[in-house]
Design brief:
The structure is a homodimer of 132-residue chains. The first copy, chain A, has 6 helices and 2 strands. Chain A has 132 residues and is mainly alpha-helical. A two-stranded antiparallel sheet of chain A has the order 1-2. In chain A, a hairpin with a 5-residue loop joins strand 1 and strand 2. Chain A is elongated and about 85 Å long. Chain A binds a DNA duplex (30 and 30 nucleotides) through helix 2.
DNA sequence: CTAAACCTTGACGTCGACGTGAGGGTCAAG
DNA sequence: CTTGACCCTCACGTCGACGTCAAGGTTTAG
């Protein structure tokens, strides 16, 4: 399939897909016209890429990681065990990031939930604590 | 306290603290010398700022939010109910972001956990599926 | 054949949260 | 007085993941 269709299927822009190739995340074949020719499996690859990019993994790491995932689905391909260390580092970074985001959400949630529908409660509070 | 000490207490750089002031997140007093003079409570404010920034909230929103939090601790100050909508939007965005990060971590965790200690398992698999 | 739709490769622009000097005051110790 | 630590205000640099033209070739429908 050509770039436009992959873009439609995955919901990412063509620019992003070209960028992914530039970063060696995808290596589409080429038609005689020079047009990119993506394999159907690239749609799934794009989903993985988006997920890992959204998680903040650097693209060069994703580039190393993807060929380790093909075929097997789970578990790294042989010869990829050198990836274990950086992968564990990223996993730990993600854990920390998730905790940070969760803490921030708790903060917002507390603010939202504890804010009264109108100012009546606050007005009462002010009245009760007035300096008289 | 002056900028250097606040930086040490909070672990953020002086540059960041000046940037926060530029973005109206902090409004330190000034000593006659022109030096910034932070209140002790600013240390706590900086922690909130860091948390919300790490969560991806735009600084102008944080700038609106902070004065709504002073004194009360929980619940918005009166006259801040106009913040509820954007706050709920951010909370929902955070929920989505946390899910994305969690999914990415699951992916990494699966890869890590399912990768054998050495190639023996894989070698066995290859042998078993050899084309003979 | 022509127009519309689709594709190509550059290459510069963007945005946010700072980093990193440059050039110069302020202040306490010796 | 001088040195060093500390502080100030510009103001340009950075980095990643694209956005957004510009100036073309290619393919397809009519």
């Amino acid at each position: 399939m050509r770039i436009g269709e992959l873009a439609r299927r995955t919901g990412v822009t063509e620019r992003a897909l070209r960028y992914y190739e530039e970063q060696n995340l995808l290596k589409p074949a080429r038609l005689p016209s020079g047009y990119r020719d993506y394999a159907p499996s690239d749609a799934e690859a794009v989903r993985h890429i988006r997920s890992l990019l959204a998680a903040g993994l650097p693209s060069h790491l994703i580039a190393e990681l993807l060929p380790c995932m093909v075929d097997t689905g789970d578990g790294l391909m042989p010869g990829c065990r050198s990836m274990l260390e950086p992968l564990e580092a990223e996993r730990d970074r993600l854990t920390a990031a998730i905790e940070e985001l969760t803490a921030a959400r708790e903060l917002l949630t507390a603010l939202i939930d504890r804010t009264p529908e109108d100012d009546s409660e606050y007005d009462a509070w002010v009245a009760a604590h007035a300096v008289a």
